[in-house]
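Page 47, continued from p. 46.
Same chain as before, 835 aa.
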Amino acid sequence: MVVFVVLLFVLLPLAVTKVSLLKCNISDPLPINHKYYQPGDFIIGGIMSQIYIFLGDITFEMRPSPALFEDPVYFSARATYLASMELLSTQDKFTPNYKCDSKNNLVAIIGGPNSYISLSMATILCNYKIPQLTYGSAPVIDKETQGVFFYRMFPNRDHQYRGILHLLLHFRWTWSGLVYLNDNNGERFVQNMLTVFYANGICFDFIERFPQLDFSSQVLAMAKEGSKTVRVVSQSTANAVVVHGEIQTMIIFRTMLHYSVFEGLAVKTKVWIMTAQMDITTIPFQRSFDLHFMHGALSFAMHSEEMLGFQRFLQKQNPTSAKKDGFIREFWELAFECSFPNSDIKKQDVEICNGEEKLETIPMSVFETRMTKHSYSMYNAVYAVAQALHAMLLSTSKHRAMADGGRRKVLYQHPWQLHHFLKSVSFNNSAREEISFDENGDLVAGFDIINWVAYPNQSFLRVRVGKVDPTASEDKQLTISEDAIVWTSRFNQAVPLSMCVDSCHPGYRKVKKEGKPFCCYDCLPCPAGKISDKNDMDDCFQCPEDHYPNNEQNICITKDISFLSYDEPFGISLATSALLFSSLTALVLRIFIKHQNTPIVKANNRNITYTLLCSLLLSFLCVFLFIGQPGKVTCLLRQTAFGIIFSLAVSCVLAKTIIVVLSFMATKPGSRMRKWLGRRLANSIVLCCSLIQSLICAVWLSTSPPFPHFDMHSTSEEIVLECNEGSNIMFSCVLGFLGFLAIVSFTVAFLARKLPDSFNEAKFITFSMLMFCSVWMSFVPTYLSTKGKYMVAVEIFSILSSSAGLLICIFSPKCYIIVVRPELNSREELMRRKN
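Result:
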């Protein structure tokens, strides 16, 4: 059975164009009539039909092209060439390249509806430099030869492709599919744009081609081939599928899906994302096909506005009201499945058309009573030619005119003369939308995003839910209202997910799976110290220096400034200990001063004892330089005061120890050590040792003094406010000299621990220096392995423990005798114990 194509992109635009021309009333804005203008013609509809429009009295003639009924090949080059050559022949006489009727001059051609027709049309007509306006998809042509004669009532295709990319990224449909028509535009899309999609994180589970639609007898073979594509689409886990095609692609698409269901293949619901070139089209045997697959689909569409009075005009149309319209009778018969008695197309077993049928009763898949996007483009194309002709008339009438019986007549002999005026045409149509072309001949406009809502009775709605504005910034080109979108029931009215795997949540990073597309990945936790604060991040990143990751590693938390303060228990306990020990030292000093004339106090250099107690008191008090917020002054005094005070204390212990040894040696007969005894030696030892340490500290402060410093890295969750030592070498010299004094003191005390004497302090000094050395030997590794404010705490603890060791080990036995056993603190007891 030969199936004649009743395509909406041909039938409806032709009817719409006529209505649009009557509605816009070209004779009003363009005051042209017979006395100023010799009628020309321009043709609409490509191979299917011709409309001769005579500006002046605005008369129309519509008649079907012979190619419609002579060639069973749909959209064939042969039919297009034939129709194009007819335009270059004398009217009603097919003599190619010969035209003798001067009253019908070809001005411009409006063709379409797909790129294949436009390309075939351009092959013939570009040789004659005839302006061609395409209301459908533009072909891929040579810009330098054919492109100069082309004007596309379609925005730049790259704007649509970027819109598709932005749409996929907006809904995070990174795992998608692609089905495209196997033509030049489809191949160009695959070759040029897929790399852009991949670069922006979009990958495709499958890339399939639509089968080719050629002859009506091959529909079954086409459907079988298409069922393989449908099987691939249905088995895919991608829920979003980009469909790139032309206006006739919908015929193939519907046939594929219907045949697949007929074969028992369950077609899984997808979100179809269709290009603007596609639209609902129907051939007779598809009238009963379900449109439910379109429910929830998204498509791009050329921007359009409603035309007032259009539907009212359609309601008045019938075959008898358009006597000069030879096309409407064929449309009427095919649309209503009836036949006129005198029809050229003989049909069997069909009803007789009475001409009173209502267009509203036709299924929307066959005929829509609202102006479609292609019809709107055709309307603008006619208007653009009319405006260009008007501009051309005003220009040429000033230079090329001749009198003819009191009338002026403008002659158009060269079609290429219209190009200049078409390039610069700019006007507002009756819907108050501005129409103009860019430098490449593309319509300056954006795209609408349409949501399809289908109903069981084969009716549907196109709901505008967004738009693509190519003039906006890159991040604002796409605007869409998610709440206005109706999704298919499979997704429970929630935004569908189309990803290879679930998103990697914040705190995780993507790791590519071997052998899988880059959209398929595993999710691994971020390494320690790094975060990811968005879904599907390729890598984790470090927080700023003054922030640290939370436990989930998805946000950065501001670090608190940390230092050993008086507000925390640790600082309070250390400060309390320092106060207690300093009070105890002051008490011991007071006891010794009170009992300064007793033998036990006077023994072994009373002044050195006082100096030792004062240095111990200062060592306890210097702890307060380490507690609290570090400042410039406290940083300068901390280590230097500690080093000098402790050197003074240890030098006092060393002096006392040396005095004990010399005192014993001086008791031997004939010893020359007596001359070394006295205050001069002890004072010299103390003064010399303290002076050396003070000199080291002075060099330190003059070369590289300590300063307040914010340590960002020692601890992960805090900023440590500390005193930077300035020079670690000088700090090591201070500690080294102090350690040297301690070792010498311990050695001398250890050697003198068994010397006989009633008040021999060597044993007590040995124990105290043993404790002192143990504390500071353990201090070094502990200090180096501790971070933050606890480094300060370690040093404070070492100061307190070593100072307390000296105080307790040296002075507790003496205080015991002075306070508890005063009877032992006498000369007689001293001599008795000595003997």
